[in-house]
């Protein structure tokens, strides 16, 4: 009964009892029982955590409501109306920002850069690896939602079993915006666009210098790269895909393997696109993207707890805002340089004319 309850808790399908003596009627091993018990415990923990988060959200909402009411108490009528007017404007601005975000995500499906995550290895992952990979996918999705230039993310070659496993961690997977779930393999999906596919691999000879909007960029969807060294390059070579590596070496000195997690690669591509979108030149955009996406622990000379180094944290609202600010500062500096050059040219012209006049 405990095993049946564990299966029900994990959402696994149950079948009618089989006749005694059949292979599937054999008693569960200790390892199988332990895995079922762990799955049931995770399901219960997740349920309790969701309930706690919901209650915390309710309390925070009530506290904010009370704070807003307290702010109005004791104000004169004119001041009170001004506060109410400001709040309405802020609310409208949030609504407009949300609508703009939804518009960008809708357009990304047809007009955004295609970013495919090759999920062919998902069925070979352990339960723990699959949960970690699912978490990385959710982080990549969160970064894409906030991007000023989002991609269309394609989960390619996702089996039904892996689809269900990811959905256990990310319940809203099937409703993710600008995300396409494809059970067909990569070779089948892009059979007629082979020349447009670029498989990203740390072992590639070619370096990626720019992101072209008509290309499909593929990221290997695996967790433990160390046990599958060269797997993405081998698969790409076997299927005839063009490969390229990210320009890490030109902008950061790594302390070990150049292999990054799925969400770190996605973040880097999104940040580079955001930089170009904001007006940064390609190489400058790559530099900012790599600085923000590559964690400190991957860098040469990193010692845990020593030194802060440049801030990293992937592609989030703060990172996109920093890129926009850098692009604006760069544009201002470019304008100033242009004004200085024009002034110097004007001064040089006046001096030249003065010299011509004196010679005459």
What Rg is obtained from the alpha carbons, in whole angstroms?
27 Å
Strand order of the largest sheet: 3-2-1-5-4-6
- The gross shape turns out to be globular
Strand content: 5-15%
Major sheet: 6 strands, parallel
Distance between the first and last residues' Cα: 111 Å
CATH topology-level fold name of the domain at 107-333? Alpha/beta knot
Helix share bin: 55-70%
Note down, in words, how this protein is organized.
This is tRNA (guanine(9)-N(1))-methyltransferase. The chain has 360 residues and is of the alpha/beta class. It has a domain of 227 residues: Alpha/beta knot. Helix content is 56%, strand content 7%. It is built from ten helices and six strands, in the order H-H-H-E-H-E-H-E-H-E-E-H-E-H-H-H. The chain has a six-stranded parallel β-sheet with strand order 3-2-1-5-4-6, with helices on both faces. Strand 2, helix 5 and strand 3 form a beta-alpha-beta unit. The longest helix is centred in the first third of the chain and has 43 residues. The N and C termini lie far apart (111 Å).
């Amino acid at each position: 009964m405990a095993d049946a309850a564990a299966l029900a808790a994990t959402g696994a399908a149950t079948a009618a009892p089989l006749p005694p003596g059949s292979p599937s009627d054999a008693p569960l091993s200790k390892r199988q029982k332990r895995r079922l018990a762990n799955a049931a415990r995770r399901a219960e923990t997740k349920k309790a955590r969701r309930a706690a988060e919901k209650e915390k959200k309710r309390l925070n909402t009530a506290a904010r409501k009370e704070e807003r009411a307290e702010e109005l108490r004791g104000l004169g009528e004119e001041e009170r109306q001004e506060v109410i007017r400001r709040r309405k404007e802020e609310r409208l601005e949030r609504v407009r920002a949300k609508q703009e975000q939804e518009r960008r995500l809708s357009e990304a499906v047809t007009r955004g850069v295609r970013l495919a995550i090759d999920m062919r290895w998902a069925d070979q992952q352990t339960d723990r690896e699959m949960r970690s990979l699912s978490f990385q996918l959710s982080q990549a999705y969160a970064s894409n939602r906030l991007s000023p230039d989002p991609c269309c993310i394609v989960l390619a070659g996702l089996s039904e079993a892996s689809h269900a496993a990811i959905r256990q961690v990310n319940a809203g997977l099937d409703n993710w915006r600008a995300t396409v779930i494809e059970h067909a393999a990569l070779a089948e999906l892009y059979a007629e666009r082979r020349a447009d596919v670029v498989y990203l691999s740390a072992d590639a000879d070619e370096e990626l210098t720019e992101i072209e909007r008509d290309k499909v960029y593929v990221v290997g969807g695996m967790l433990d790269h160390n046990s599958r060294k060269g797997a993405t390059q081998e698969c790409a070579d076997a299927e005839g895909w063009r490969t390229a590596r990210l320009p890490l070496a030109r902008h950061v000195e790594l302390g070990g393997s150049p292999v990054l997690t799925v969400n770190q690669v996605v973040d880097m591509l999104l940040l580079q696109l955001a930089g170009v979108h904001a007006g940064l030149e390609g190489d400058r955009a790559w530099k900012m993207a790599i600085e923000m996406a590559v964690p400190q622990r991957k860098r040469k000379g990193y010692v845990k707890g020593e030194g802060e180094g440049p801030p990293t944290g992937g592609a989030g609202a703060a990172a996109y805002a920093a890129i926009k600010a850098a692009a604006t500062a760069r544009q201002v500096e470019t304008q100033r340089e242009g004004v200085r050059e024009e002034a110097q040219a004007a001064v040089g012209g006046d001096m030249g004319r003065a010299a011509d006049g004196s010679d005459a």
